[in-house]
């Protein structure tokens, strides 16, 4: 049986491998992980304000502005005045951005199948429970740490 430290080490190794793969794959399209995260949110939610993106991505409005600037320059998103609030901008995926996200969604499904398809349904269920527990526990530990640090 694996110890808690061995499990954490495996998660960290997996995280590093996934990060390397994502960085290389996204870099081919001129994207970064942060820009892709923003686009993924637009893909899921549709057009939103920069303020809403900052809240969802949990970053500063200045950070979102920089991300959006880069994505406007690459043709992935457009920034237009909000039709109901002249002070706000609405960020929308362009055709290029929508096509990129559709292709990414297909690759995501294919990668998930390649990685976990051969795993039995029983083992996938156990893995899902363990990962959900780890995610929930990590969130609680982070909240506790930030409260102590405040």
TrEMBL record:
| Stored InterPro entries | HTH_MarR-typ, MarR/SlyA-like, WH-like_DNA-bd_sf, WH_DNA-bd_sf
HTH marR-type domain location: 4-136
Q: Name the keywords, alphabetized.
A: DNA-binding
Record GO biological process? response to stress
Please verify whether the record's keywords include DNA-binding. Answer: yes
Q: Which domain of life is it from?
A: Bacteria
Q: Name one GO molecular function term.
A: DNA binding
Q: Does the keyword Flavoprotein apply?
A: no
UniProt xrefs under PANTHER family: HTH-TYPE TRANSCRIPTIONAL REPRESSOR YETL, TRANSCRIPTIONAL REGULATOR, MARR FAMILY
Matching Pfam families: MarR
Q: What is this protein called?
A: DNA-binding MarR family transcriptional regulator
């Amino acid at each position: 049986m694996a110890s808690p430290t061995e499990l954490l080490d495996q998660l960290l190794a997996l995280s590093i491998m996934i990060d390397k793969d994502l960085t290389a794959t996204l870099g081919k399209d001129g994207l970064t992980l942060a820009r892709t995260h923003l686009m993924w949110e637009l893909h899921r939610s549709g057009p939103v304000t920069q303020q809403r993106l900052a809240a969802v991505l949990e970053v500063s409005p200045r950070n979102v502005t920089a991300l959006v600037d880069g994505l406007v320059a690459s043709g992935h998103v457009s920034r237009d005045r909000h039709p109901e609030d002249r002070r706000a901008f609405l960020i929308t995926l362009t055709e290029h951005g929508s096509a990129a996200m559709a292709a990414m969604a297909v690759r995501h499904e294919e990668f998930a199948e390649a990685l976990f398809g051969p795993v039995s349904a029983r083992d996938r269920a156990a893995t899902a429970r363990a990962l959900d527990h780890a995610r929930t526990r990590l969130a609680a530990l982070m909240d506790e740490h930030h409260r102590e640090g405040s």
